[in-house]
Specification:
The protein is elongated. The chain is about 25% helix and about 30% strand. It has a 7-stranded mixed beta sheet. A 4-stranded antiparallel beta sheet has the order 1-2-4-3, with helices on one face. Helix 1 crosses helix 2. The termini are far apart. It is built from 5 helices and 13 strands. It folds into 2 domains: about 70 residues, Gyrase A, domain 2 (2-Layer Sandwich); about 140 residues, Cyclophilin (Beta Barrel). It has about 220 residues and is of the alpha+beta class. It holds the Pfam family CT_C_D. This is Allophanate hydrolase subunit 1. Keywords: ATP-binding, Hydrolase, Nucleotide-binding.
Length: about 220
């Protein structure tokens, strides 16, 4: 399977491949094991390799290993059961879900149907991006596809659960954001004094458990 490597400065390579079934998270795990690789960061359709700027001929060093790893993963994809499993509580109360009604109208559903369909899937963390610890989750019910806001909010509270197109995610910290907000998780997703600092990692599997507003505040107040 053909793939491309594009230099990103003098200490990184962007790897792309047209094969839609390639598991980029698993590829990152394999390449990260090479002693020359400082990190391998997956995205939806790419992998960024980081290495020391003094490494000679990085394309020649990583190319053969990438070819072998890609061929092996396409022949023997990783088993989902090997992934870490998580359950996160989410409150879909209107006070924490400013866009829930709008998403329901856009999708031709009731708010209860949106909640049921959003909390039903087993999601996979495709990658972390946009902000530290922000999980981009695949597995969203296609009936919940809703566009980003044309104008992002200047501030979104930490823990907010949003939808943007065919993906869903959770804001780990307060930040600007343009996703449709339909709920909120009371548990922190990031601790900068821990290793690793993020609760979720690429490749992890996740279920969202609906909770009441009272339970949301109980869990929120219990956090250190």
């Amino acid at each position: 399977m053909a793939f491309e490597m594009v230099p990103l400065g003098d200490s990184a390579l962007l790897v792309t491949c047209a094969e839609p079934k390639l598991d980029w998270v698993a590829l990152g795990h394999r390449i990260r094991a090479l002693p020359e690789c400082l990190d391998a960061v997956p995205a939806y359709r790419s992998l960024t390799l980081h290495f020391a700027s003094t490494l000679p001929d990085p394309e020649g060093r990583f190319g053969p290993a990438l070819g072998v790893a890609i061929a092996a993963l396409l022949k023997h994809p990783p088993k989902p059961t090997d992934a870490a499993q998580h359950i996160l509580p989410v409150c879909y109360h209107p006070s924490l879900a400013p866009d829930l009604d709008a998403v329901a109208r856009h999708c031709g559903l009731t708010t209860d149907e949106v909640i049921a369909r959003h909390s039903a899937p087993l999601y996979r963390v495709a990658f972390l991006g946009f902000a530290p610890g922000f999980p981009f989750l695949t597995g969203l019910d296609p009936s919940l596809n809703a566009p980003r806001h044309a104008t992002p909010r200047q501030s979104v509270r930490a823990g907010s659960v949003g939808i943007a197109g065919n993906q869903t995610g959770i804001y780990p910290a307060a930040s600007p954001g343009g996703w449709q907000l339909i709920g909120c998780c009371p548990l922190p997703l990031i601790h900068f004094n821990q290793d690793p600092p993020t609760r979720l990692q690429p490749g992890d599997q996740l279920r969202l458990e609906p909770i009441t507003l009272a339970r949301f505040h109980e869990l929120l107040e219990a956090q250190p």
